[in-house]
Amino acid sequence: MRDKKLIFEEFNIHLMNDEKPSDYFNNLIKEGEFPKIYPFNLLEELKDVPQSPKHHPEGSVWNHTMMVVDNAAERKTLSEEPHAFMWAAFLHDLGKKPTTKLRKGRITAYEHDIQGEKIARKFLEELTGEKEFIDKVCYLVRWHMQILFVVKDLPFADVKNMILQVSPDEVALLSLCDRLGRGEMTEEKYKEEEENINKFLYKVKNFN
After folding, report:
1. The Cα angle at residue 17 between residues 14 and 21, in degrees rounded to 5
2. CA distance linking residue 179 with residue 25, whole number of Å
3. For domain 4-205, which architecture applies?
4. Cα gap 178→172, rounded to integer Å
5. Helix (H, G, I), strand (E, B), or coil: what is residue 126?
6. Does the record's keyword annotation contain Nucleotide-binding (predicted)?
7. Average pLDDT for residues 173-193, to the nearest whole number?
8. Which of 132, 120, 129 is nearest to 95 (CA)?
9. In the chain, what percentage of residues exceed pLDDT 70?
């Protein structure tokens, strides 16, 4: 059995250096070589977690995650903490497996951000003792849905606590990658997502 920390370092190399990290991870899946041991198995299991076809025409949570990781790789130089940012992109939807349910004919994953933070923390604690790094990743996972909640004035918005833990700019950057990481992304939709990012940052920076 391969050492978990060596796998972690190998994943690090591809997340931080590849133009399209998805090529590496998808090839591991294709060749049956993706690590089956905990916690890495939590990622491979995302292949079998469905999403709403309306919001995620790309299919499974794994497909979405790979698209988000590739978008993040393109933009990681804009991040204050590229290492934490890339791992947050990789782990941001771990909470979807336990929260995905069919409700009235719709596939939903309510509170996957909240559950995802807990799962991501345990995931990383298996692999590294770098508490500051773990915190940065997990806070991004926890708050990555806030752009939707804030822009749409939903009751789940919690700007006060978000800004105590994480930079709104980092949340915005991850959220942009998350929103772009889905199928059938047209130029019109791309512009709409950029506008939502700007609305989010405006509201957060004028929060009192």
Report:
1. 45
2. 21
3. Orthogonal Bundle (1.10)
4. 10
5. coil
6. yes
7. 92
8. 120
9. 100
Helix-helix angle 61-75:21-30, to 10 degrees: 150
102 - beta bridge partners? 107
Whole-number pLDDT of residue 1: 63
Q: Where are the domains of the chain?
A: 4-205
Contact assessment for residue 73 and residue 86, using Cβ atoms and an 8 Å cutoff: yes
Q: What is the pLDDT of residues 147-177, one digit of tens each?
A: 999 999 999 999 999 999 999 999 999 999 9
- Nearest-angstrom CA–CA distance, 175 and 199: 13
Q: Provide the sign of the torsion angle of the four alpha carbons 152, 145, 64, 42, taken in this order.
A: negative
pLDDT digits (tens, 9 = 90+) for 57-91: 998 999 999 999 999 999 999 999 999 999 999 99
Task: Please state the length of the chain.
Answer: 208
pTM: 0.96
